[in-house]
Amino acid sequence: MGYRKAYFKKDGTYVQGHYTNNRSKSFSNKNNGCLILFLALLLLGLPMACSDSSSSEKTDTTAKNNCPTKTCGDFTTQAQAQATFNSNKSCYKNLDADGDGIACENLSK
């Protein structure tokens, strides 16, 4: 709202100063405040969401890069595969297909 000064009209009448609404009806100060608050929260939330997911992705890819790729075809006996699997179970988890703790069950003992 703005204050309009007093003035004389062309016909000589006097109009006393008063407050007027000088904003359009489609633009509201309340809606503008909510919009600014929403955008601020959105901008603050995005970097946090991206940093959390990227740090876990980096950890996963680092662990994958440090692990050599081994399959059951790389071993001649089940005992060799089991020894490798027991050395680092998280790294060689693909050697245990059914998750029972026994690596390459189809190989001969």
Keywords:
109 residues, mainly alpha, 2 domains, two-stranded antiparallel ribbon, 44% helix, Excalibur calcium-binding domain-containing protein, Excalibur_Ca-bd_domain
What report would you give on this structure?
Strand 2 and strand 3 form a beta hairpin. The strands form 2 sheets. This protein has a two-stranded antiparallel sheet. A two-stranded antiparallel sheet has the order 2-3. It is mainly α. It contains 2 helices and 4 strands. The protein is rod-shaped and about 115 Å long. Residues 54-58 have low confidence and may be disordered. This is Excalibur calcium-binding domain-containing protein. Residues 68-105 form the Excalibur calcium-binding domain. InterPro entries: Excalibur_Ca-bd_domain.
Uncertain runs are 54-58
Structural class: mainly alpha
What's the main sheet like?
Answer: 2 strands, antiparallel
Calculate the terminal CA-CA distance, rounded to whole Å. Answer: 88 Å
Strand order of the largest sheet: 1-4
- What percentage of residues falls in helices of 4 or more residues? 40-55%
Principal-axes shape call: rod-shaped
Helical region count?
A: 2
Protein name: Excalibur calcium-binding domain-containing protein
InterPro entries: Excalibur_Ca-bd_domain
Domain Excalibur calcium-binding: 68-105
Short description:
The chain has about 110 residues and is mainly alpha-helical.
